[in-house]
Amino acid sequence: MSPPELRLGVNVDHVATVRQARGAPYPDPVEAALIAAHAGAHSITVHLREDRRHIQDHDVQRLLAVSKVPVNLEMAVTDEMVAIARRLKPAYVCLVPEKREERTTEGGLDIAGQLPRIRAVCDALADAGIVTSLFVDPDPQQLEACIASGAPHLEIHTGRYADAAHFETAAAEFVVIDQFAKLAHQAGIEVHAGHGLNLHNVAAVAGIAEIVELNIGHAIVARALMVGIGEAVREMAAEMRKGRG
Ligand SMILES: CC(=O)[C@@H](O)[C@H](O)COP(=O)(O)O
Ligand SMILES: NCC(=O)COP(=O)(O)O
């Protein structure tokens, strides 16, 4: 039996990074999102950070008004972001950690250490019709907490795998991701993965049948500078299909 379809979520944050670098009205992450969807993206991810370093509130509003594919809003676990999500009602929210000084997300969200808070936020988002995913390191303690939280989805932080300096380290991290994905699937949680995936490392992760969605942004936007966002999405989707087998 062939593995379930593997969806590609395209994160357009860093189209906004280029725009914010000059404070210009272009490039527009919403235009990029429309092109990405036309090229085959199954969903669009935007990370509305507390410091608004790239995606702005108006980007989220405009994207939700025009997107033909579901929007996944990544956000910190704050009252401000919960209120924004409940008002704008994206299809999905992915709860992620944020540290003001970080260049990018440095790890997964600590669910185990704040379970009552996570449960309350998941309930508040579900009450607004939003499906919540938890962005976590592939750590068994975090899986137990994800199960206890009642969140229907989780996204495995693939950063340690993607950033590994040596093949052996990447291979060891891959085994951790694979085992975590299988345990999460067995627990009835829909399994996604993302962070740092690119054309060179995505195929192995795509081959994990229990993972049904990959969220990829920086590598696609970087490639888009050379070939355009549509071609960059098509290339990534092809590499994912190769890995899926
Ligand atoms: C949660 C995650 O890994 C990314 O989707 C996140 O958006 C990274 O933050 P930046 O997009 O600001 O690099
Ligand atoms: N959650 C991962 C994501 O949306 C994109 O991460 P990256 O590919 O920009 O590292």
UniProtKB/TrEMBL annotation:
<comment type="pathway">
    <text>Cofactor biosynthesis; pyridoxine 5'-phosphate biosynthesis; pyridoxine 5'-phosphate from D-erythrose 4-phosphate: step 5/5.</text>
</comment>
<feature type="binding site">
    <location>
        <position position="22"/>
    </location>
    <ligand>
        <name>3-amino-2-oxopropyl phosphate</name>
    </ligand>
</feature>
<protein>
    <recommendedName>
        <fullName>Pyridoxine 5'-phosphate synthase</fullName>
        <ecNumber>2.6.99.2</ecNumber>
    </recommendedName>
</protein>
<dbReference type="InterPro" id="IPR013785">
    <property type="entry name" value="Aldolase_TIM"/>
</dbReference>
<comment type="similarity">
    <text>Belongs to the PNP synthase family.</text>
</comment>
<comment type="subunit">
    <text>Homooctamer; tetramer of dimers.</text>
</comment>
<dbReference type="InterPro" id="IPR036130">
    <property type="entry name" value="Pyridoxine-5'_phos_synth"/>
</dbReference>
<feature type="active site" description="Proton acceptor">
    <location>
        <position position="47"/>
    </location>
</feature>
<feature type="binding site">
    <location>
        <position position="196"/>
    </location>
    <ligand>
        <name>3-amino-2-oxopropyl phosphate</name>
    </ligand>
</feature>
<feature type="binding site">
    <location>
        <begin position="217"/>
        <end position="218"/>
    </location>
    <ligand>
        <name>3-amino-2-oxopropyl phosphate</name>
    </ligand>
</feature>
<feature type="binding site">
    <location>
        <begin position="13"/>
        <end position="14"/>
    </location>
    <ligand>
        <name>1-deoxy-D-xylulose 5-phosphate</name>
    </ligand>
</feature>
<dbReference type="GO" id="GO:0008615">
    <property type="term" value="P:pyridoxine biosynthetic process"/>
</dbReference>
<keyword id="KW-0808">Transferase</keyword>
<keyword id="KW-0963">Cytoplasm</keyword>
<feature type="binding site">
    <location>
        <position position="104"/>
    </location>
    <ligand>
        <name>1-deoxy-D-xylulose 5-phosphate</name>
    </ligand>
</feature>
<dbReference type="GO" id="GO:0033856">
    <property type="term" value="F:pyridoxine 5'-phosphate synthase activity"/>
</dbReference>
<dbReference type="InterPro" id="IPR004569">
    <property type="entry name" value="PyrdxlP_synth_PdxJ"/>
</dbReference>
<feature type="binding site">
    <location>
        <position position="49"/>
    </location>
    <ligand>
        <name>1-deoxy-D-xylulose 5-phosphate</name>
    </ligand>
</feature>
<feature type="active site" description="Proton donor">
    <location>
        <position position="195"/>
    </location>
</feature>
<feature type="active site" description="Proton acceptor">
    <location>
        <position position="74"/>
    </location>
</feature>
<feature type="site" description="Transition state stabilizer">
    <location>
        <position position="155"/>
    </location>
</feature>
<dbReference type="Pfam" id="PF03740">
    <property type="entry name" value="PdxJ"/>
</dbReference>
<dbReference type="GO" id="GO:0005829">
    <property type="term" value="C:cytosol"/>
</dbReference>
<feature type="binding site">
    <location>
        <position position="11"/>
    </location>
    <ligand>
        <name>3-amino-2-oxopropyl phosphate</name>
    </ligand>
</feature>
<comment type="function">
    <text>Catalyzes the complicated ring closure reaction between the two acyclic compounds 1-deoxy-D-xylulose-5-phosphate (DXP) and 3-amino-2-oxopropyl phosphate (1-amino-acetone-3-phosphate or AAP) to form pyridoxine 5'-phosphate (PNP) and inorganic phosphate.</text>
</comment>
<feature type="binding site">
    <location>
        <position position="54"/>
    </location>
    <ligand>
        <name>1-deoxy-D-xylulose 5-phosphate</name>
    </ligand>
</feature>
<keyword id="KW-0664">Pyridoxine biosynthesis</keyword>
